[in-house]
Design a protein that fits this description.
single chain; mainly alpha; 4 helices
């Protein structure tokens, strides 16, 4: 799937599930994205093995729930994709433009800490 296809899919899903109902705001969506980043940090801090990026939580009689750093990063991307789709932003093109610009920047973008 292309980035455009993933954005379209994420946007359709978010709309169908009611995440873009009456009263939604860009500010609230950006806050939700930050919340997903916080969840990824928490999952990273709580992982049991250095390379544990995903695991399942099993509940009897229910679908197993995927959790972990990888899953939380996927949530970040899906929220970004659905917001870009809802706003009509061609994120694939924005990524291309940003990557092209970044090739002109100095090593570590002139920072001393690679963060």
């Amino acid at each position: 799937m292309s980035i455009k296809d993933l954005i379209a899919s994420a946007t359709r899903y978010a709309i169908r599930q009611g995440f873009y109902g009456e009263g939604w705001s860009v500010e609230a969506k950006l806050t939700a994205i930050k919340g997903e980043v916080d969840e990824a940090q928490r999952a990273y801090d709580e992982r049991e093995a250095p390379e544990e990026w995903m695991h399942y939580i099993h509940h009897p009689g229910m679908t197993s729930i995927p959790e972990g750093v990888g899953i939380e990063l996927a949530d970040v991307v899906l929220r970004v994709f659905s917001l870009a789709g809802k706003l009509g932003i061609d994120l694939e093109e924005m990524i291309r433009i940003k990557q092209e610009y970044n090739t002109t920047r100095p090593f570590l973008h002139a920072k001393t800490d690679p963060e």
